[in-house]
Write a structure and sequence with these properties.
With 248 residues, this protein is an alpha/beta fold. It is 35% helix and 19% strand.
Length: 248
């Protein structure tokens, strides 16, 4: 029996924000079957702990709206269109994750904020909660269905809507620092923070709209490195990893 199988969950219902980069091979764009299977295997272990799991997926491995709009003077694609393209990318990642999870016997439902009933269910709050109650992993794609809104904001909103106990923000960085660790070798990582401290010091956790949603709902946020083996399970078990942000 592995040590992960002996861990008890600290939370009953979890919202996991998974960036699109998690699906791509290192340093490359696209969807990597090996990387997707690694994620799915970790998620299967989480489900085995008895956790109700909802996942908001990003699409940055396929397309980011900012690469087509904003300051790019060579593009004739409007910001609204570019953001819609990015949201479609999240559905592609969601489909890949859904099939991979079901291939290893994890019941899964893919719900999209952008209606496309040929490939997935529409996002309906009560339906999402019912799937969670039945033990299905709920993959939430399509962002919020609106342009000009990040997938961080989608994660915060969905976390509130499904009454998640915590928002797990899986990143390539092992927490929140007082400075950019890539630029400052003396940057210090926080183990715990309050919402007030994050706002007062303007720390980079997620975009301000998403963070404010979590603050209003008193929804804890854990920022952690998902690439470290078994870290998703450790996060769910309440182990001291990454940076935990709470009211007090």
């Amino acid at each position: 029996m592995s040590d992960a199988q002996t861990w008890k969950p600290a939370y009953k219902r979890v919202l996991l924000k998974l960036s699109g980069e998690a699906f791509g091979p290192p340093g490359k764009n696209g969807i990597g079957p090996v990387e997707t299977l690694e994620i799915a295997t970790a998620l299967k272990r989480v489900v085995g702990m008895g956790v109700e799991l909802a996942i908001v997926v990003g699409g940055g491995n396929l397309l980011r709206g900012a690469q087509f709009a904003g300051g790019n003077n060579t593009s004739h694609i409007k910001q609204t269109t570019a953001d819609n393209m990015g949201m479609l990318g999240t559905v592609m990642n969601g489909l890949a994750l859904q099939d991979t999870l079901e291939a290893i016997d994890v019941p899964t439902r893919l719900l999209s904020a952008i209606p496309m009933d040929k490939v997935c269910e529409p996002y309906i709050r009560r339906r999402a909660i019912r799937h969670l109650e039945k033990g299905r992993v709920v993959i939430l794609a399509g962002g919020t269905g609106n342009p000009y809104v990040t997938t961080d904001s989608a994660a915060a909103l969905r976390g509130r809507e499904v009454d998640a106990d915590i928002l797990l923000k899986a990143t390539k960085v092992d927490g929140v620092y007082d400075a950019d660790p890539d630029k400052n070798p003396h940057a210090t990582r926080y183990d715990r923070l309050t919402y007030a401290k994050v706002m007062a010091d303007r720390l980079q956790v997620m975009d301000i709209e998403a963070f404010e949603q979590c603050r209003q709902a008193k929804l804890p946020i854990l920022v952690f490195d998902f690439k470290t083996e078994r870290n998703i399970e450790r996060a769910v078990a309440g182990h001291t990893i990454g940076t935990l942000i709470t009211l007090e």
